[in-house]
Task: structure prediction
Amino acid sequence: MAILEATQIHKSYGNKFNKQEVLRGIDLRVEKGEFVSIMGASGSGKTTLLNVLSSIDKVSLGSIKIEGKDFTGMKEKELAEFRKQHLGFIFQDYNLLDTLTVKENVLLPLSIMKVSKKEADQKFQQIASELGIYEIASKYPNEISGGQKQRTSAARAFIHDPSIIFADEPTGALDSKSASDLLNKLSELNRKINATIIMVTHDPVAASYCSRVVFIKDGQIYTQLNKGEETRQHFFNDIIRTQGVLGGVQA
Amino acid sequence: MNLNYIIFRNLKKNIKNYYLYVFALIFSVALYFSFVTLQYDPAMEEYKGSIKGAAALGASSVLLVAIVAVFLLYANTIFIKRRSKEIGLFQLIGLTKGRIFRILSSENLILYFSSILIGIFLGFSFSRLILMILFKLVGLEAQATLSFSSGALRQTLIVFGCIYLLIMLMNYMFIKGQSILSLFRVVSTAEIRVKRMSVLEILIGLLGMVMILAGYYVSSILFSGKLTGTTELFATMIFILGSVIIGTYLFYKGSVSFIFNAIRKSKGGYLSLNHVLSLSSIMFRMKSNALLLTIITTVSALAIGLLSLSYIAYYSTEQSARHSVPNHFSVLLPEDAAKFTQALNGENIEYTETRRDVIQIEADVAGIVGSDLGEEFGNTMILPVVSDHQVEGVDVSPEETLFTGSNNALNQFMSLRSTGQIELRGLTLSIPQQLVGVDKDAVVSQYFSLGLPTAIVDQSIYAQLAQDLDPKLQSKSSVYIGIDIPDASMLGKADAIFHDLGFSEQSGYMSQPALIFDQKSSMGLIMFIVGFLGLTFLITSGCILYFKQMDEGEEEKPNYTILRKLGFTQGNLLRGIQIKQLFNFGIPLIVGLLHSYFAVKSGWFLFGTELWTPMVIVMLLYTALYSIFGFLSVLYYKRLIKESL
Ligand SMILES: Nc1ncnc2c1ncn2[C@@H]1O[C@H](COP(=O)(O)OP(=O)(O)O)[C@@H](O)[C@H]1O
Ligand SMILES: [Mg+2]
Result:
């Protein structure tokens, strides 16, 4: 069974007289354990797509199911509950609370789930050592590097075993070394605990870590690439080629 | 897009944001205008308390202006900082600084002067009400009529015009001193700096609490008789003030984060949302507002304290008058009593007369004085002594003495015990007596007792002492004559007669109604002034705290976005915010209340006889009004949270 199933999603901004249709009928299926990236030119609607898939924004038309549950008709409270239980997020600008330490930031999603303190501690130890942030647990965000911040953000996304993790340009603000560190960790977690990850990126290198790349253009899916048994270098070349065909600004 | 359009747009936007500022401005103008109107009003001539009404109002209107000016200028610094980005943008698109200054000035001009006009209008409408409140408080039965005073109008316009010029000057300096770049930076430098607690901070935090507690402790023994001499008392008061104020500053600077940090540490990194929103935010922010909070706390403590004390005095008026003279009227000489009763008869006013023979006796009180003060005067006092036959409901055996009419302040100073061994001394005799109790009700007037308790002894002892008097100690009269008017409605008339006979001027001649009126009118005026000044301070400082919260909320808005993305509902966040505001407004309030509680407690007995009722009423009122601002800030946050996703 697909873990995420989106059918014919449309999204427009503006009012009746001045309407901008950003998404025009997108169908997307993601299976458990997939690591999918979404690519496209700047302004093509990648963030918009991710936001509606992750319930942060509402679709204008269409339905989205996660683990068989359609949430497009849900009320704000239900939606929040849904996000809390099923989803994890990593953002380009980290979105850490700067008044909380690394550990406090990471454990935040657990605090509303009535997890015992002991269990929370165990979980933290596990995920933090996996992502290499255990040593900085008691530091504040302004005391650590961008790469560490993003790994903290990733730890927060993984801590409560969500069904899907959404990442919007997670490497966008990182230098290439920190970026590849993070991507290695993500694909490791993807393999090890069979986590499902959907990542928006405009960086072909980042996309080459994934198992599938979805290209969008003019609000529709232009094409998809499967990594299959290819090497990462090979896959990277495929991505570059497709991007070239896609044309326009390669942002 | 012309200049007028920009001004109009800004104005519309700002009014929505700063309705509280406009409200506070209107309120202050209205109050100021009323005060000045009263001051200029001929009705104030009628008011002849022991304090000059018009002068007191004039002085307090100066204080009022000082509070309001500080508030307006401070609020303006908050606002101009918030708008620095907009100002930078104007500069970026090529407006000159002069032009920007003109935009700001005209915008302010419209907002400011329309508030002032509304304020003056309201002030005039309410000045009659305010005058009525004043008359009621001071017990004056005059009709409250007021006419519009052009002098008051002129003074109000001039004063607030000057404040406007000051604000403009401030804006001018601000704009002039900034380059485009620095304008963009203002907001980011204001951001909080998250830092780990250092040892120094922990020490500061502990020191703050110790200093406050030390101040409280010393205040509780200030008037207990351990300290004697005015310089010593004065130095101690300075110490208390300094210790508490500095302690308060350190408390905000360190103790709050110290305590919150300790709570947070105990959670081991596993914080609930409520903790995230309240603890972690306040921990870092209260520090940066330490000075402001200290000022607000200190002045509100002062306001609550003064108001409580004057209310205590006002509230205890009748009791203290009864304490000064137990009957409605008292005259010294029997022939004057005859004159008075004759006059009363002439007006058909019923009366009852009480006579008590009083002798002045030296008493050795070493056995009942707890403080060192006793030794200063050899542990003896000159007490009025009365026979138990002459006091209704009292019967003591020949070995026993009952003290009555003791004064609160005196008890406190001397730490008088209510039982113990004393000795009454005549010229030759020395009679040991067992003190069996201390009652509150006076039986002779202050003329005889001078604030000391009256000793009631058995008739036989009284007779012995009366035979053995030390003539040097006796007063002009040895009989206390009290006259009561059973019909309360005749009391005023009787007082007029008493006054007409010229008794009110002479020492030893006392009138309860006159005493009550005197104290009510002076305490009423003080309460009126302190009350309104306190209210103004409350409203302006509440507004400042609210504006600070607006800034804080604006800065924390991204956090709410993150939290909502993570799946926390608006309801979750709002609950956390409510807790945060409970601390944000509650901590300064509780510290202020505690300060004033200890201040009042240390010296209230000098002002009256009832501590709790007046103090609690004042504190409840203050808390209720203050809570409004906390409540409004929660509403503001609610909107912010709603908009954050
Ligand atoms: N909240 C919004 N209101 C109106 N238009 C929006 C909003 N968010 C995005 N858009 C528009 O939708 C388009 C796609 O934006 P986005 O999804 O952010 O692109 P991408 O992330 O691919 O760069 C853009 O043209 C943008 O102007
Ligand atoms: Mg984007």
Remarks:
- Chain B has a mean pLDDT of 85.
- The interface with chain A takes residues 192, 194-196, 268-273, 276, 280-281, 283-284, 558-559, 561-572, 645 of chain B (CB under 8 Å).
- The two ends of chain B are 31 Å apart (CA to CA).
- Residues 212 and 244 of chain B are 5 Å apart (CA to CA).
